[in-house]
Amino acid sequence: MTVQVDALRRVPLSRDRVLRAAVALADDAGIESLSMRKLAQELGVVPMALYKHVANKEELLNGIVDVVLGEINPPVRGTDWKNAVRQRILSARQALLRHPWASQVIESRTTPTPVVLEYLDSMIGMFRVGGFSVDLTHHVMHAMGSRILGFTQELFDDSQSVDPEVQAVMFGEMAGKYPYVTEIAMAAAHVEESVVGQGCDDQFEFEFALDLLLDGFERLRQQAWTSAD
Amino acid sequence: MTVQVDALRRVPLSRDRVLRAAVALADDAGIESLSMRKLAQELGVVPMALYKHVANKEELLNGIVDVVLGEINPPVRGTDWKNAVRQRILSARQALLRHPWASQVIESRTTPTPVVLEYLDSMIGMFRVGGFSVDLTHHVMHAMGSRILGFTQELFDDSQSVDPEVQAVMFGEMAGKYPYVTEIAMAAAHVEESVVGQGCDDQFEFEFALDLLLDGFERLRQQAWTSAD
DNA sequence: ACCTGAACACCGTTCAAGT
DNA sequence: ACCTGAACACCGTTCAAGT
After folding, report:
1. How close B147 gets to chain A, by Cα (Å)?
2. pLDDT (tens digit, 9 = 90+) per residue, B178-216?
3. A69-155+195-222: CATH architecture
4. Chain segment B95-124, per-residue pLDDT in tens
5. Which residues contact A14 (CB under 8 A, 6 or more apart)?
6. Is there a contact between B177 and A114 (Cβ–Cβ < 8 Å)?
7. Using the CB atom, is residue A49 less than 7 Å from strand C?
């Protein structure tokens, strides 16, 4: 018995194991539950043991971002730039959807890890190879913002399911004060064939904006746009 | 003496005063320094005294977001939709730039306050009055994302000034591993006429992406686009 | 040299005791 | 009824004592 427990504890606590456990904990219990103390507990280890594999919590967060980025598919080869970029970004989006906390953690990072830099470098390369000037590529990357990593910050979470009765009351109150918001909310609800649709088709919205931007980029590329214009 | 202190303490602790102090504290000391305890100390009050004017920290954060949104100029009247939307968003951007912590706090909100809803409603109204269908307006608002409030999450903070010597070494290392990133970084640096330019022209980048989107929206409006296409 | 328990300096918030 | 100090249940991290 004691031997078994000892054996379990002896699985050496690598950085990789720490990061994996952190990702799992964030996935299961939410990012707000990811503390050094709880993570240590999850690993059957004293809190301070983590600090041998990770300098501090910031580095832990950098690490789990790298784990998520590792799930993004490599670029597809043999298509035009737009298709290649589009597919890569949608793959990134899939990875991010698997870890709902990831976008929030990415936003809180102050310096990019090597893994992030490598990803950005490969995305920039796709534009450059596709015929974009350095200048245009620069601005295009800024215009993409976090969308290059497959997410946009939706301003508010409309995914929380609310009691329909409560929602009906809210609609009544909203209609008076915020007529335009209500108008759109009702239209969106109808599309989803429920009286009080619980939100929008995120995938559609993401691709709508993505394609709008990519089409705009292609137009600028064709007319050899420069920032001196 | 005692009378004076008492008099100071007697300035009644309104919700307004609490929020103002919170904004000032976040402006001066950074958002990470805004705790209930420090805020109370700043106001010369016991921590629990705050809870009479604010239910909890979440409500405090909602409150300070409302204060910032209150600084956004009302819509300009008498121009086309594009100009009106553009100006309003740039005004929002100015307000957000005055409070660098604001975008981060906004992103962390889960439900919009009435002030936010009012702002969104008026933005939606500008599109509707400008001739956009409910359907197109809906998708356009999603495509704008946080840009509607005047900010985008730049993926990483390139504004931190680094020792030029250190930066030179970094460039050398980066050039090998991340050639495309380096190419853009060097071009951006040249534009700013310094060997190691400290970042990009954020205002230019913001307007570049904003205009790209607005032009795209106008194009869709003119061709009476619907999501059924 | 390595590991780790206790401790430190913080949090947001509850609650009961004091006025 | 109102106010508030102490306490609770947490944090991330330091540090010295133990092996």
Report:
1. 10
2. 999 999 988 887 765 544 445 789 999 999 999 999 999
3. Orthogonal Bundle (1.10)
4. 999 999 999 999 999 889 999 999 999 999
5. A53
6. yes
7. yes
